[in-house]
Amino acid sequence: MSFKMIIQLILASLLLVFSTGAAWYEGSTIVEIPWEWQHTVIFSQMANGQVEDKNDILQIDYFVYAAKFAPTFPLLMLLSATYLIILMGYTLLKCNGRMFEYFLFWIGVSFLVLSGFVSKSPTIGLKIFFVSFLVIGILLIGIGLFGFLNDRAKRALGERENETI
After folding, report:
1. What pTM was computed for the model?
2. Dihedral, CA of residue 106, residue 44, residue 64 and residue 129, to nearest 10
């Protein structure tokens, strides 16, 4: 692994850790807003049933609250985690370009599926996440398809040149 790749991994990891801490802190205000528990603490409700006390709230619901009402740091988490996943995928799959293109394509499809889960949210934060998931998904699918088609065209041209010789 090259020095540039290591620097990118370190910087993206630091951004992910910082934004996770900040989103966790921002989301912790959910414990002070009991009227929002019914709509926001979905993981706590799945795990514990009805949430009646702030001690019943799981930590992951802090991130849900932050994504809904203070989306800056959760969005930074999303972007840095996506960058890390793509960077690690590139590092592992750079020997086989076609596999990396498939990798990008399927991550893009995953983002489109995620956009469907948050598409009908009334909060501005999850609307921002919807657009982010949608744009990232379309970009990754486009990059994957472009790389695949570009590779296919190069091979087709190479075969034509071999036929004429």
Report:
1. 0.87
2. 40
